[in-house]
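Annex B. Sample input.
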Amino acid sequence: MTAHKSGDPTTLNRLYGRAKGKPLRAGQQALVDNLLPRIAVPLEGPVTAELLFGENCPLHFEIGFGGGEHLAFRADLLPGHGFIGAEPFINGVAQALTHVSGENPVGGGPAQPPLGNVRIHHGDALEVLSRIPDGSLSFLYLLHPDPWPKARHAKRRMMNDGPVNMFAAKLKPGGEFRFGTDHAVYVRHALMVMQRHTDQFEWLCNKPQDFQVRPGGWPETRYENKARTVYGHEVWYFRYRRK
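Annex B, continued. Sample output.
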């Protein structure tokens, strides 16, 4: 997860948290060595749909995609759209590559053709996001970010004024920001932050069910299932439209 200064939304701090867990399996390492370089986001220069996908298609960006289930599901659901995912944890990148390659399709079943509409960045999401031209994104996703629950670590949360200002800048008018969490402290913090940005975002909520029930086209990831079934956590889903 990335920390961010609350002022200039283009000024980035270092990544917090681990970048690697248990050793990769041979198949995962092969995907990191061979597939990732072919679909990686360029390390320099502007990041546009035309440069990544060869056409001006609707563009989606996911911050911290975990194991990549949501990213792959959405990309398979919307083959005419382009998807960018950023994740600092190499084990998550490796798992996402199994979905993108078709070797381990989301939902199980036999192997499928690779997803050609996904690009992946192993590293800092906000660094890549800063290189996307303003008003380019149709969707931006932040699902189950590290809550940093202690008050002294609140500045490390992705849901802070600096990043939210950047989200607003990169989304086109009418574009959608989706945020999900199972952490009550983060919910309160995020709502407080978003309340300061009502000039930029409209909360798509008319009744409690709108944030208590997962919307259509928003798949349940393994992380979310574990939070609900193992830990008994409630999960909240927030949708905001860029004004």
